[in-house]
Amino acid sequence: MSTETLTKPETDSTESTEDDSPKMFHYVRKNKIAESAVMGTHVVALCGEVFPVTKSPKPGSPVCPACKEIYDGLRPGKDE
After folding, report:
1. Is 4 helix (H, G, I), strand (E, B) or coil?
2. How far is CA 67 from CA 23, 40, 48, 51, 76, in A?
């Protein structure tokens, strides 16, 4: 029996790859954010998009226009 060495294929190091940052952030129920971040479960945004929470928005981050429109139309909750 003989062994064979496999070589890594050549790749172009100048090729750009997209980073994993979200293009925009969505509105999600507050109580589901931590659970998703820790457990990896998926959340449902106000606009209907389903995804796991992987990043937290920073001030000035782009917000999903559909989520914002829905959120602005909601009545104030018990917290407000």
Report:
1. coil
2. 14, 22, 9, 14, 16
Task: Give the separation between CA 69 and CA 46, rounded to whole angstroms.
Answer: 9
pLDDT in tens, 8-56: 444 443 333 355 555 889 999 988 998 998 999 999 999 999 999 988 8
Q: Please, are residues 70 and 46 in contact by the beta-carbon 8 Å criterion? A: yes
Is residue 34 within 8 Å of residue 45, measured between CB atoms?
no
- Using alpha carbons, select from 43, 41, 40 the residue that is nearest to residue 27: 43
Q: Identify the CA nearest to 52 among candidates 38, 63, 66, 64.
A: 38
Structure tokens at 79: 């917290």
Pair of tokens at residue 14: 């100048």
Contact 66, 46 (CB under 8 A): yes
